[in-house]
């Protein structure tokens, strides 16, 4: 019978665990930092918005970042909205990040406010914003 010493067994266990750990695909320190930073905006910093396909919304904040938002239920007035407001489900401070859900209050001229739920899907790159059709680009 073969025996393995405790230090050797621990070393083998650690080696096998680190082999299963997810690795970083980033090639440099800037990319590694960008991959770990949360992509967020402040609800009070919204500057513009446009409706995309059904249930899709693109918003631009004061720092010129564009985010894609997906509604989780029906926003009846979204296609006629002249103002929207976001309220985070997780933070009373008003900071919304990719993956968060929020409540959108939609206001249209002459209509009553409508509310619906939405998820912040992703922040678009400059190239993705440029590639959006004009009618979707905030």
Polypeptide structure, described:
The protein has 138 residues and is an alpha+beta fold. 21% of the residues lie in helices and 36% in strands. The protein has helices spanning 6-20, 29-36, 126-131, and strands at residues 40-42, 46-51, 56-61, 66-71, 81-88, 95-97, 101-108, 114-123. The strands form two sheets. A six-stranded antiparallel β-sheet has the order 2-3-4-8-7-5, with no helix packed on it. Strands 1-6 form a two-stranded antiparallel ribbon. It is globular and about 35 Å long. Residues 6-28 and 31-35 have low confidence and may be disordered.
Protein traits:
globular; alpha+beta; 138 residues; two-stranded antiparallel sheet; 21% helix; 3 helices
Strand order of the largest sheet: 2-3-4-8-7-5
Beta-strand percentage range:
35-45%
Distance between the termini: 71 Å
**Class derived from helix and strand content:** alpha+beta
Radius of gyration: 22 Å
Label the overall shape.
globular
Q: How many helices does DSSP assign?
A: 3
Q: Roughly what percent helix?
A: 10-25%
Main sheet characteristics = 6 strands, antiparallel
Which regions contain 5 or more consecutive residues with pLDDT less than 50?
6-28, 31-35
> What is the total tally of β strands?
8
């Amino acid at each position: 019978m073969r025996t393995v010493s405790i230090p050797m067994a621990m070393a083998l266990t650690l080696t096998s665990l680190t082999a299963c750990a997810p690795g970083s695909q980033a090639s440099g320190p800037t990319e590694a930092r960008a991959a770990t930073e949360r992509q967020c905006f402040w609800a009070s910093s919204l500057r513009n918005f446009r409706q995309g396909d059904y249930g899709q919304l693109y918003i631009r904040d004061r720092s010129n970042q564009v985010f894609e938002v997906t509604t989780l239920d029906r926003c009846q007035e979204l296609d006629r909205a002249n103002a929207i407001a976001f309220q985070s489900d997780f933070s009373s401070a008003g900071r919304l990040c990719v993956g968060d859900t929020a409540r959108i209050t939609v206001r249209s001229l002459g209509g009553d406010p409508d509310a619906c739920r939405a998820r912040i899907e992703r922040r678009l790159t400059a190239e993705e914003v440029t590639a959006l059709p004009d009618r979707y680009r905030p």
